[in-house]
């Protein structure tokens, strides 16, 4: 009896009759420890599926330790590329007594010829494998149109009013089309007029039905192309605090997408969370909307939404919640004299579930705010009621150390840079991720420029800044296998942190203003500081780590007393609970992290 799960990848890509042919042809073979199964530069007679034991993948051209590329254990498949390419690039040797199922090379080639998706699986790069995993994860829906839907599938035809059109004509056009807004052009620029604008003009500004409507138009619009993802348009609406985007082809308006259209298109109550956040006009309503974020996260995960899009949406929603809380707590007279910053994963836009409060406040030098400390204490307490725990390191606006004028902050940057110790480098790292969510954004940009001027050209400081990227060992052993698969591995320390901080160090060196790791990678590629293919691998590795960690955190939320069913901390992954494909992806991703750490070591002259 063949003990292989043909419902799992890659065999699930085969049709039923192909699986039956495969089952009939597969045989089991026993191998002693140290036996060579595939020799480098030699043709392969079989593709191997490991039943029990372990097989090492070795590069014989490299020294013993450096040449150990990976290890294959129960459920893993190897030798496929050796068959497809006509010879093996590497040597495969059993590490211990091993049982393998053998697939004859001729049959494997035939299956690949007749089933292209099956052949493609073995040629996929890490990015493609991650997409395949997301689409086929147990219990999930494939992209289900959710991520594949484009703006043009949801947009309304534009209702355009002539530039000389009157208020009466505008009202009649809106009523006829049952629309909430119309477009108007002036000197080649497109503006929008809403029903609210028309009412304001008639009631507050004394316009008559015969008055020109053009004076009511808003020309600062959020625009998207028709082939933009609809999900990205929803993120733009949330981030810019608007309820519509104008669809443009070049300089020509071709449609309008309203927030209600997007929510209706997605047809799930989960996506109404964004609307509830926007409509919240008091702390109680905001708290109710904020409490529904975990529900939204589960819905996104169930639909197989790509992690980077989920992070974008959740970061935008969390930013709006924090911004609204600030507006409710801080008197309006003080709001425009400073800038509220979010830091850490929130600042990078990489938070999914709510994490600890990490925030700071920059004030302009002329600000006079005697009640500032009391207002900041109340703001911290408000975020606590909204589900954002206190920061264990006390990096919050309720701590006066993280509040100050622009001049104060510039002095802190200079002092931290001069100190050069671990604590000072950590403070600089926290600050470089700062993202404005309320108040005057130009204050943080001015401070960022100060940080770049002081730090970007200082090679000794950059070396000290980058060193923590190597602080935590990657959870792979010398043979490329995952360490302690039955005890759990810390995916944050061993996987996420080296990528995030290493990219942050390179971004400080090259004055990259973006705060998100993926955006920083793109800028580094544009600047010629990183190969595009390797940057993509890093981004996909980071997305995998984030998803596996998120699933662990969701399990904790659903477990009794907030505990994960496996009894592990939120950052610990129990490897033997992962599927064969997930283990394969995790191993490949951690190997990418190891390569990145080597590059960082050479770049910043670190001891690796």
From TrEMBL:
A Pfam family hit: DUF294_C
The CBS domain, residue ranges: 217-272
Keyword terms of this UniProt record: CBS domain
Domain Cyclic nucleotide-binding: 10-111
Record-linked CDD domains: CAP_ED, NT_GlnE_GlnD_like
Molecular function terms, GO-annotated: [protein-PII] uridylyltransferase activity; magnesium ion transmembrane transporter activity
A single GO cellular-component term on record: membrane
InterPro entries named among the record's database cross-references: CBS_dom (IPR000644), CBS_dom_sf (IPR046342), cNMP-bd_dom (IPR000595), cNMP-bd_dom_sf (IPR018490), DUF294_put_nucleoTrafse_sb-bd (IPR018821), GlnD_Uridyltrans_N (IPR005105), MgtE_transporter (IPR006669), RmlC-like_jellyroll (IPR014710)
Gene3D superfamilies, A to Z: CBS-domain, Jelly Rolls
Superkingdom assignment: Bacteria
Protein name as annotated: DUF294 nucleotidyltransferase-like domain-containing protein
UniProt source species: Alloalcanivorax marinus
